[in-house]
Amino acid sequence: MNAHHRFSFASLLTTTVCSLLLSVVAFNNANADPCFNDPKRAYEYLIAKEKAITQGREQKIININRASEGELVSLDGIGSSKAQAIILYRDMFGDFKTVGELAKVKGIGAKTVEKNQRRLSVRD
Predict the structure, then answer these.
(1) For residue range 47-84, what is the model confidence (pLDDT) as tens digits?
(2) What is the 3-state secondary structure (H, E, C) of the chain?
(3) Neighbours of 100 (CB within 10 A)
(4) Strand partners, 120
(5) Cα–Cα distances in Å, from 52 out to 20, 56, 57, 61, 119?
């Protein structure tokens, strides 16, 4: 009878592990891109996907008092060096009181602030 219990436990364990692995594989495949037979449809899908990602990035409101370098570079006209300048400015002088104060950062003008106005915030 002991051998029977070990066999049952081993079967149960094997079944559980296999089920878990299948669940993980199914979950990972749920986020996979679809396959296309037509290259044109595949291209259109990829363009649409990239456009959706870009729009999502462009619509995100950025709190300039809390934003990381990565978030700041998503702004129009802000590269890595300007993002670092924003962070340095805020570390040296404290939080921005208004979005317009961003123009006080060296290399960032009123035009850059104006282009990004709808995406900028000084509050959470």
Answers:
(1) 888 877 766 666 789 999 999 999 999 899 999 999 99
(2) CHHHHHHHHHHHHHHHHHHHHHHHHHHHHHCCCCCCCCHHHHHHHHHHHHHHHHHHHHHCCEECCCCCHHHHCCCCCCCHHHHHHHHHHHHHHCCCCCHHHHHHCCCCCHHHHHHHHHHEECCC
(3) 14
(4) 62
(5) 33, 6, 9, 16, 17
In this prediction the pTM is 0.56
Question: Exposure of 116 by Cβ count < 10 A (0-12 exposed, 13-18 middle, 19+ buried)?
Answer: buried
Residues 41, 48: Cα–Cα separation, whole Å: 10
CA distance 17 to 7: 15
For residue 42, the one-letter residue type is A
Cβ burial 2-19 (10 Å sphere, 16+ → b, else e): eeeeeeeeeeeeeeeeee
Rounded CA-CA distance 17/9 in Å is: 12
Between 18-22, 33-37, 76-80, the lowest mean confidence (pLDDT) is in 18-22
